[in-house]
């Protein structure tokens, strides 16, 4: 039986002001299993960024259940959420988010240095170098990010996301700041990582890259739709999402 990495049930997110309420997410049901490659696409304002923030524990839902590897995380404090995020979630951003003052090695090592339990120096060195080898950037360990091309910086960002062996890799428009050649290379690398067992959830506007995922979901008006336009929440009781949403 396949291990469930992520389970969202009845997730809503409401942003309220004195004048109005904005319902960004409406009853999201989502399951992601070990080895999945899920793409989420949809028009501007459909809730993609909000969903990604909740998946990455950067924000908390208004209602609903969110579990990561069986652990309920929807009601965590900010500090607890930060620890779980560091241990369970890897992020790849459109803008790379590398620190120019640090070497490539130290950028990749950052998630391990913020662990609750200190990672021994020898293990940290081994894990960072293994991730650099995975993205074919071992020869750049001592460089600074501003000495690298955009494509190389995104490879380093992927290595940083992988170094903590996360339960889930969240990928936010990974090719948005790259030309088509480098974008294709980054997507090929992500596909290879998935083939080797890494679990991915990617938000993208590019239909070519969305189609590379093994499961393609659409977000519209705060609801996840299957390929035929049916809200997945209506199907949740009928079959696992992996079966109803496969592409």
UniProtKB/TrEMBL annotation:
Coiled coil: none annotated. GO terms for molecular function: ATP binding. InterPro entries: AAA+_ATPase, ABC_transporter-like_ATP-bd, ABC_transporter-like_CS, ABC_transpr_LolD-like, MacB-like_ATP-bd, P-loop_NTPase. It comes from the Bacteria. Pfam families: ABC_tran. Signal peptide: none annotated. SMART domains: AAA (SM00382). CDD domains: ABC_MJ0796_LolCDE_FtsE. Keywords: ATP-binding, Nucleotide-binding, Transport. Residues 6-247 form the ABC transporter domain. PANTHER family: ABC TRANSPORTER ATP-BINDING PROTEIN YTRE, IMPORT ATP-BINDING PROTEIN. This is ABC transporter ATP-binding protein. It comes from Rheinheimera muenzenbergensis. The lineage of its organism: Bacteria, Pseudomonadati, Pseudomonadota, Gammaproteobacteria, Chromatiales.
């Amino acid at each position: 039986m396949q291990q469930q990495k992520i389970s969202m049930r009845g997730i809503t997110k409401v942003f309220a002001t004195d004048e109005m309420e904005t319902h960004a997410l409406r009853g999201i049901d989502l399951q992601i299993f070990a080895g999945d490659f899920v793409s989420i696409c949809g028009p501007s304002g459909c809730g993609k960024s909000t969903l990604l923030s909740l998946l990455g524990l950067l924000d908390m839902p208004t209602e609903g259940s969110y579990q990561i590897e069986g652990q309920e995380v929807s009601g965590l404090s900010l500090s607890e959420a930060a620890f779980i995020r560091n241990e369970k979630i890897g992020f790849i951003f459109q803008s790379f988010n590398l620190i120019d003052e640090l070497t490539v090695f130290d950028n990749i090592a950052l998630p391990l240095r913020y662990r609750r339990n200190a990672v021994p120096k020898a293990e940290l060195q081994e894990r960072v170098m293994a991730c650099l080898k995975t993205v074919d950037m071992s020869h750049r360990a001592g460089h600074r990010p501003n000495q690298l091309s955009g494509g190389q910086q995104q490879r380093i960002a992927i290595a940083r996301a992988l170094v903590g062996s996360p339960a889930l890799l969240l990928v936010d428009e990974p090719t948005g700041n790259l030309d088509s050649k480098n974008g294709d290379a980054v997507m090929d690398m992500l596909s290879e990582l998935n083939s080797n067992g890494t679990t991915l959830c990617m938000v993208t506007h590019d239909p070519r890259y969305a189609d590379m995922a093994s499961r393609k979901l659409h977000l519209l008006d705060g609801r996840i739709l299957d390929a035929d336009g049916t809200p997945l929440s209506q199907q949740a009781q009928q079959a696992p999402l992996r079966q109803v949403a496969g592409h």
